[in-house]
Amino acid sequence: MTDRLEAQFAFLNEADRLKSVLRATTLCDASRPENSGEHSWHLALYALVLADQAGPGVNIDRVIRMLLLHDLVEIDVGDVPIHSQNGTAHGSAETQAAEARAAERIFGLLPGDLRDDLRALWEEFEAAETPDAVFAKSLDRVQPVMQNLACGGGTWATYDVTFDQLESRVGVKIARGAPRLWDWVRCKVRPWFG
């Protein structure tokens, strides 16, 4: 019991470092950059509130679990904005390899059963093949869009994002997991780009 608790708290203490990872996206009021811990919490809330946008067979409890875990690798890798360098760094083989190493280290702090279960959820999110992961990924894409809208453009202005880039890098993933949500968001976003 003592060894198990030591391992669980070692993981939880390490996860606290996610609060120090700053993202490119600002808070809705544009007062400061959001941190990755706040982002993960906000996404879990998105899943809870927008559960009615999920497709058939989506288990919102699993989606929330994925969203709470999905960015833990940023403790080691940092935030890689989707629109940076025309999107080439985000999702690159180098970034994916660094994230896999980070997942090995961070989830490796846990007792074996938890390590395997939580790492499997993280991998499922990354693969985005199951209905739960596809919906979780769509929420991960829509949240920064809504924050950029709320703060007058945010990272779209910073990275000179065009509407076509937004649609191809973000919109397709939102539409895949929450098509009605993307239809609504797209109507909100389009006017911003003129």
TrEMBL record:
<dbReference type="GO" id="GO:0046872">
    <property type="term" value="F:metal ion binding"/>
</dbReference>
<feature type="domain" description="HD">
    <location>
        <begin position="15"/>
        <end position="182"/>
    </location>
</feature>
<dbReference type="GO" id="GO:0005737">
    <property type="term" value="C:cytoplasm"/>
</dbReference>
<dbReference type="Pfam" id="PF13023">
    <property type="entry name" value="HD_3"/>
</dbReference>
<dbReference type="InterPro" id="IPR006674">
    <property type="entry name" value="HD_domain"/>
</dbReference>
<protein>
    <submittedName>
        <fullName>HD domain-containing protein</fullName>
    </submittedName>
</protein>
<dbReference type="GO" id="GO:0002953">
    <property type="term" value="F:5'-deoxynucleotidase activity"/>
</dbReference>
<dbReference type="InterPro" id="IPR039356">
    <property type="entry name" value="YfbR/HDDC2"/>
</dbReference>
<keyword id="KW-0479">Metal-binding</keyword>
<keyword id="KW-0378">Hydrolase</keyword>
